[in-house]
Structure formats: C-alpha cells, structure tokens
Amino acid sequence: MLSAILTALLVVAAIGILLAVVLVLASHFLKVEEDETVLKVRECLPGANCGACGYAGCDSYAEAVASGKAEPNLCIPGGADVAAQLGEVLGVEVSATEEKVAFVFCNGDCKAVDYLDVVYDGIEGCKASKLVYGGPSACKFGCIGCGDCASVCPVNAICVHDSLAHINPDLCIACGKCAKICPNKVIDIIPKKSKVVVMCNNPEKGAVARKHCKNVCFGCKKCERNCPTNAIKVENNLARIDYTKCSGCRECFDSCVTKCIKAVDFYEGTIG
User: How many domains in the chain?
Assistant: First the structure.
C-alpha cells in the first residue's frame, strides 16, 4: 500500500517536472521579442488611453511612433513635456503640442431657455432623451444637460449645473470623448489660448431662435464686420471663429448684441 502511494507521488512529481521543463522551453523559443523603442516610448506616455492622438490607446500610439508612422507630438494630454521626452527617445527634434481644451458652445441654461411641457420617464441620458422627443428644451441644438459627457470624462472635468454642462479647463485633458458622445455636437476642442468663444449652437434665424432661448446668436454679422483679422464668419445664421486667425483683440465680444460671444481665459478659468 505504501509503495503504491510513493509510486503515485513520484509519477505526479515527474509529470510536474516534465511540464515545467516544457513551459520553460516554450517561453524561450516561442517568446515574442518586444521592441525596446516601443517600450521606451510607452513609458513616456501618460496612460490615459483617451484616443485624442487618433489611435486606440497609448500602446497603439507607442507602436506607431516607434515605427515612424505617427508624429511624436500628438499626445494632447501629455502636451509639450511628453513631446520633448519622445524627442529624446527618438533622437529627433519635436515641435511643441498646442494646448487644447474642451468647451461647451451653449449658454442655454435653465434661466435662458424654454422647456417643453412633457414628462420623460425612461433611460436617462442625452442620447436617449434626444431620440425620444428631441430633448427637454425648446432649442433642439443646445446642451441637453443629462450628463452623457460627464459620464465618459476620464478625469471628472465635467459637471452639469442649471441644466448645462460645464468643463473645468484645469482638469480637462482635451481627449475629445465628451465631444464624440454629445448628440447635439455642442462640445468642441479648441486652443487653450483662445480669448473669445461663441456660446451658441443654434443655426435657426434670429427671430425663431430667440423664441427658444434668450442667449442665442442672431447672426447679425456685427462681430464679423468689426473683426480686424477676418477671424469671424457668420454661416447658417451662426458666428464661427477661426482660431488660427483670431488675435484675441475681443472686438467681437464688445460688439456682440446678445452677448453670446464671451471673453475667456482658460488659464485663469474665467468666462464672461
């Protein structure tokens, strides 16, 4: 009886040793060699996996940079620091990444916009609300205010107050997830150095849009006429700013009839 037990133990031990040897050999002969450059590039990246660079995540971007398929200055959350580190790893000169921030181009809070006389009892969220009845407000182009953007923000930079989404520029990493999920496309990524913004997304004619919200853009073109650098154009009854031309003079802000154009300082966190 004892000999049978010892024999069984020896057989099990032998099988274990054999399998261990097989695993060691397999790991040696079948291992995939990792590119050291990819590893070094990946170490420089912040790990947000936000996709702002245009790739699925930091791993994919690291592989693209190491192979020369992507520029090393596309990491928006990492900014100039990460770009400089990648330049050292690759041995190339890298231009600094322009700082950007997400912004909600709507000022239709609960005090300014009219609301529909309806009761919605269903799935909570901007997209669901829009699919059912277009959203709770009479303006069908503004912020719905259900917080889909806040739910996808990886750094908790977004909150909803007075039925309007607000983005903290100090926390925002400009990953663009909020802009992608917004069903009304009222969120966009703009240069952080911007000095003015048009807080309206309604392309309807002034008289019609005014019935729905007090803070709309009339499309009067006064800002366009007063802009010394031709940075503002009114298209589809809505003023748009070309930030590559904007000098930050704020003439548009001073001349805006409805004050839907706001002066901003994202570094100080001021709007108005």
Answer: 2
Helices (H), the chain: 2-29, 36-44, 58-66, 79-90, 126-133, 148-152, 177-181, 206-212, 222-226, 251-255
Q: What integer pLDDT is reported at residue 32 of this predicted model? A: 56
Q: Quick one: 116 and 220 in the same domain?
A: yes
Same domain membership, residue 121 and residue 82: no
Task: Dig out the tokens for 241 from the structure.
Answer: 């700013």
pLDDT tens digits, one per residue of 126-185? 998 888 878 888 899 999 999 999 999 989 999 999 889 999 999 998 988 999 999 999
Task: Select from 138, 133, 130 the least CA-distant residue to 185.
Answer: 130
Helix (H) or strand (E) holding 215: none
Q: Cα separation of 122 and 124, whole Å?
A: 6
Q: What is the pTM of this model?
A: 0.77
